UniProtKB/TrEMBL annotation:
Keyword Nucleotide-binding: yes
GO MF terms held by the record: ATP binding; dTMP kinase activity
Keyword check for Cell membrane: no
Xref: InterPro entries: P-loop_NTPase (IPR027417), Thymidylate_kin-like_dom (IPR039430), Thymidylate_kinase (IPR018094)
Superkingdom of origin organism: Bacteria
Coiled-coil region: none
Reaction(s) this enzyme catalyzes, per UniProt: dTMP + ATP = dTDP + ADP
GO biological process annotation, one example: dUDP biosynthetic process
Name this polypeptide is given: Thymidylate kinase
Role played: Phosphorylation of dTMP to form dTDP in both de novo and salvage pathways of dTTP synthesis.
CDD domains on file: TMPK
Residues in Thymidylate kinase-like domain copies: 8-197
Gene this chain is encoded by: tmk
Length: 211
């Protein structure tokens, strides 16, 4: 099987990181060689950028600066980890990728999908997800889940209208790119969501010993 690239997307509190871990464990059981990454971050440079974009002190970070920083982290991640892993036949799972910029900066910051796509063209270097798993929960539900459980960062301090634009942006992206999007309702239990994801993926991955 050719190298495969799976990305997870969703608003804050959607359970992406949990489901990335669940899927990674399942794929290892199925004897896949995998690489797991996150955005922004995943490399030394990327983690420095993550500190800038998420630090509550940086409330004056502009939308344009933010989109370029995200693209810079992505450029480093693609060249340092994702492309080499895929060239070596490893399946890559990413907790956020290009669709996060489209949703958060394109729609949430009102920069526009075309502008964000253009800025990220060089960063991506032709690397694009084969499957994007969108965990579909509303911003309200996501923040209920996070309440008191995680450290509040800069992106948690945005206005309600920002998160609604992000969410609606994801819905538009899921419709526009329906061939690669797998939409999974995130309101069920962790195991139920994980089972739904695996049921959808195992056919695409052609897992030889899937049940």
């Amino acid at each position: 099987m050719k190298p495969f690239f799976i990305t997870f997307e969703g608003v804050e509190g959607s359970g992406k990181s949990t489901q990335v871990g669940k899927l990674a464990s399942k794929l290892r059981e199925e004897k896949y060689a995998i690489e797991v990454v996150r955005e922004p971050g995943g490399t030394r440079i990327g983690e420095l950028i993550r500190h800038i974009t998420h630090d509550r002190e940086n409330v004056d970070l502009t939308a344009v600066s933010e989109v370029y920083l995200m693209a810079a982290s992505r450029a480093q991640l693609v060249r340092e980890i994702i492309r080499p892993a895929m060239d070596n036949g490893r399946l890559v799972i990413a907790d956020r990728f290009i669709d996060s910029s489209l949703a958060y900066q394109g729609y949430g910051r009102n920069l526009g999908e075309d502008v964000v796509t253009s800025i990220n063209k060089l960063a991506l270097d032709g690397v694009f997800p084969d499957i994007t798993i969108f965990l579909d929960i509303t911003p309200e539900e996501g923040f209920k889940r996070r309440n008191g459980t995680e450290k509040i960062d800069r992106l948690d301090l945005q206005q309600k209208e920002f998160y609604e634009r992000v969410y609606q942006g994801y819905k538009k992206l899921a419709e526009k790119y329906k061939d690669r999007y797998v939409v999974v309702g995130g309101n069920k239990s962790i195991d139920e969501v994980a089972d739904q994801i695996w049921d959808r993926l195992k056919v695409k991955l052609q897992t030889p010993n899937s049940k």
